[in-house]
């Protein structure tokens, strides 16, 4: 299982929100490039970046920061937040982004999503943010009438190969992932699933790994020093050795 340390960017700072609430924000650093480098030094191979300004307002403002992170590390970087046009996907891929994450557009304009998938096969990840079983959009600010499980099957039919699944009620709460929901997803889809939200301990990571998740995004637990990234990577390596 791949561990994706998370960098959420807002107004050029590294922040974390609680349950996607922009009013409940904690600033952890004003040096996102330094944070990315530190993750790489601890053994990270991948990085998850969200432009929260883009998620909230629909227009990304951190291209320069993303460009600098890519140019100054060897990390495989996936980026989301405010990606709502084919041109934006093109721009990010040209920066060197490995995978582009889309959210709102997947539910608002599935035809555009299909065009993105056909134009850039295997480079588009859909972020499915759910609360009480329903999909949220606009940076988690709007609840739709679309049931998450139905939506996931639609994404698979369109040709999506990889999703980020976030139980918004768990995000930033350090209360553990939504294991039951993730187990259900693994049963209904063959897409690769990256779990996000609530990861608190090394035990959480071990359980997700044993379930067969493709990846796990870890944010607040690292910033709050519940464990280090190096410890997490070594923990999963030991699991692999035991297997």
Could you characterize what this model shows?
This protein is of the alpha/beta class and 243 residues long. It has one domain (2-242): TIM Barrel (Alpha-Beta Barrel), CATH 3.20.20. It is 41% helix and 30% strand. The chain contains eleven helices and twelve strands. It has helices spanning 32-41, 52-57, 63-72, 86-95, 104-108, 110-119, 148-158, 179-188, 202-211, 220-223, 229-242, and strands spanning 2-10, 13-18, 21-29, 46-51, 76-80, 99-102, 124-131, 134-137, 142-147, 162-167, 192-196, 215-218. The protein has an eight-stranded parallel beta barrel with strand order 1-4-5-6-7-10-11-12, surrounded by seven helices. The model has no long low-confidence stretch (mean pLDDT 91).
What labels would you give this structure?
single chain; 243 residues; alpha/beta; TIM Barrel; 8-stranded parallel beta barrel; 11 helices
What is the gist of this entry?
With about 240 residues, the chain is of the alpha/beta class. The chain has helices at about 30-40, 50-55, 65-70, 85-95, 105-110, 110-120, 150-160, 180-190, 200-210, 220-225, 230-240, and strands spanning about 1-10, 15-20, 20-30, 45-50, 75-80, 100, 125-130, 135, 140-145, 160-165, 190-195, 215-220. The protein has a single domain (about 1-240), classed as Aldolase class I (TIM Barrel, Alpha-Beta Barrel).
State the separation between the terminal residues, measured CA to CA.
13 Å
SSE ordering: EEEHEHHEHEHHEEEHEHEHEHH
Seen as an oligomer or otherwise, the chain set is: single chain
Helix content: 40-55%
CATH architecture: Alpha-Beta Barrel
Radius of gyration: 16 Å
Shape: globular
């Amino acid at each position: 299982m791949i561990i994706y340390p998370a960098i959420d960017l807002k107004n050029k700072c590294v922040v974390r929100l609680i349950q996607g609430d922009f009013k409940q924000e904690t600033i952890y650093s004003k040096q996102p490039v330094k944070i990315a480098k530190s993750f790489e030094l601890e053994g990270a191979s991948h990085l998850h970046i969200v432009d929260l300004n883009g998620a909230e307002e629909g227009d990304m403002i951190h291209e320069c920061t993303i460009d600098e992170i890519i140019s100054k590390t060897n990390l495989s970087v996936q980026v989301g937040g405010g990606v709502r046009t084919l041109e934006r996907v093109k721009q990010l891929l040209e920066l060197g982004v490995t995978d582009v994450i889309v959210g709102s557009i997947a539910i608002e304009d599935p035809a555009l999503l299909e065009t993105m998938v056909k134009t850039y096969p295997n480079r588009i990840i859909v972020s499915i943010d759910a609360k009480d079983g329903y999909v949220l959009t606009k940076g988690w600010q709007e609840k739709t009438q679309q049931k998450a499980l139905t939506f996931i099957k639609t994404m698979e039919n369109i040709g999506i190969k990889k999703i980020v699944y976030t139980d918004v009620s768990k995000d930033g709460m350090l209360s553990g992932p939504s294991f039951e929901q993730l187990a259900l997803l693994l049963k209904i889809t063959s897409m690769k699933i990256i779990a996000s939200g609530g990861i608190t301990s090394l035990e959480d990571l071990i359980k997700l790994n044993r379930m067969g998740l493709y990846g796990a995004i870890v944010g607040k637990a690292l910033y709050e020093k519940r464990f280090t990234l190096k410890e997490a990577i070594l923990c999963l390596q030991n699991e692999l050795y035991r297997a």
